[in-house]
Known about the structure:
The protein has about 325 residues and is of the alpha/beta class. The chain has one domain (about 90-325): Glycoside hydrolase, family 3, N-terminal domain (TIM Barrel). It has helices at about 15-25, 40-55, 85-90, 95-115, 130-135, 145-160, 190-195, 195-205, 230-240, 260-270, 280-290, 295-305, 315-330, and strands at about 5-10, 30-35, 60-65, 65, 70, 115-120, 165-170, 185, 210, 215, 245, 275. It has a four-stranded parallel beta sheet with strand order 3-2-1-12. Strands 6-7-9-11 form a four-stranded parallel beta sheet. Strands 4-5 form a two-stranded antiparallel sheet. The N and C termini lie far apart (about 45 Å).
Amino acid sequence: MAIGACILDADGLRLTPQEKSFFRAADPFGFILFARNIESRDQVRALCAELREAVGRDCLITIDQEGGRVQRLRSPLARDWLPPLEHVARAGAQAARAMYLRYRLIAQELHALGIDSNCAPVGDLASDATHPFLKNRCYGDRVDRVIALARAVAEAHLDGGVLPVLKHIPGHGRATADSHKDLPRVAASLAALQAEDFAVFTALNDLPVGMTAHLVYAALDPLPATISPEVMAMIRRDIGFDGLMMTDDISMKALPGTPAQSAAAARQAGCDLVLYCNASLEDRQAVAEASGAMDAAGLARAEAALMRRQNPKPLDTEATEAELTALMGGKVYV
Length: 334
């Protein structure tokens, strides 16, 4: 059976009979979890097992666990962290090592629950104009520093047996609007974008999975990047990213039309997978149908990405926590 070119979510703590039937028929590539799906360790493990059983394979299960404001797992199931930008500021010259340790602990938490992917690192460049919905999720405002920190975050995930999802390609930092509510438009020149925003993702183009940005780059195309064939071609050609490419959540208000229309447009533009969240079963069914099946190129990229899942490297949790606390001059988590 063909694998569906989508990543979907579940309504609650366990799958309903209707969801099981739908997921079995649609066979989505993977799933994403939210806070509403999380109650206890045993429950999360059971839900992950149900999701994989529904599609009959060891599918990818991802989550948004950046720390700080964007953190689906909370205490006591996971450490509550400072937002990334505040963590980096506290770490100073030791930021790369501190970020590695932070996300190595996060990866350990995720893997223990059956979650084998995380929507991080964030490669977006912060600036004075960056919208608050994103700014404290960024790692800094310098290209070289963001590259180094994002690389450390990605390596921490991979060492912990968790696939990182690099976002938001090709760069969301110039957005002055919240793409959950509006369509951001970026007027910067192509030269400026190439030298700054795009340069981060070019340096990280070997990572296994990426997520698109829902915003317009006027220098490239009047269409939002997620549904722009021109931008998607630029990501593959110029940035050189050949990893598995998923959309940001297409339920966000930045995209025009219905979710099914956005799904079809994203696939036609060149996205391998459509991420769709927080919707009714009927709407999820429509998006799964509009997304269609993964094509040969997408399946090859998916196989290459999944091959980078590995058993976690050994980790001395107490020593890792102690080193991180020493680097930061005190704990940055609860």
